[in-house]
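hey so u asked for the seq, here:
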Amino acid sequence: MTVSTAKQTDKEYILVEKKENVATITLNRPNQLNSISDSLAHELEKTLCEVEGDKYVKAVILTGAGKHFSSGVDLRKASDYPTRLERSHQRFGEHTSNFY
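ran it, structure tokens below
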């Protein structure tokens, strides 16, 4: 079964578009080269949980807005790294392993 195109806009740093059985997740901080802040990591984790629970999604594309995918961790916002952000990265790995 396919699902029509649906866009999700309730997040500040993540865009989600579902078209048929594919979810496209876009990191949306192009002015900061899509660097991973704690807020973006939290939104990404929440989004991956939502997509993981969607029985119609069979594939996920992770991309970045603008010219760059991601420059990595936002060092200006990483004062509590490796605690909170590291846990978000670990959970991200757990979610993505479920798609294999």
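DSSP finds two helices and four strands in the chain. The beta strands are 6-8, 14-19, 22-27, 59-64.
lmk if thats what u needed
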